[in-house]
Amino acid sequence: MNDPNFDRTVVFVIEHSPEGAVGVVLNRPLDLAVSDALPEWAGVAAEPAVLFSGGPVGHENALALQLAADAAEGIIPGIAMADLSDTPTDAAVRIYSGYSGWGEGQLEGELAVGAWWVFDAQPSDIFATDPDEVWPTVLRRQGGQFRLLADYPAAPWLN
Q1: pTM to 2 decimals?
Q2: What are the boundaries of each domain within the chain?
């Protein structure tokens, strides 16, 4: 996809229905500490304890993912949405400013033309302590050609 908002990003799709889809970019940390933006959540913010850019839509809103109380439940096993209007629990949380959104049929159209690769997510993708390693880690996990792309330079013509 030729869109700088999604260049070398890993997007976790939270919800996908006939009306559209919503997700968050997992590997775009911001220079804003959780303690500065949402101090009540600082104690449970996963490292690095900064807000992440969830995508190009709705930066006036924040949403959060947390470790699920029941590891067998959630959006994927072990991952749930956190309600930022509630009192924080002891579960680790990752907070996103904005999100990635698709209207009705938009994501399906992008998938049909090969604009996205689809892989199963793991909780470790969401709570990676080094956001720069999310992209190569997810690709290496797939094996084959994707494993080779994990270390492919962003601008190979500069080598």
Answers
A1: 0.92
A2: 4-128
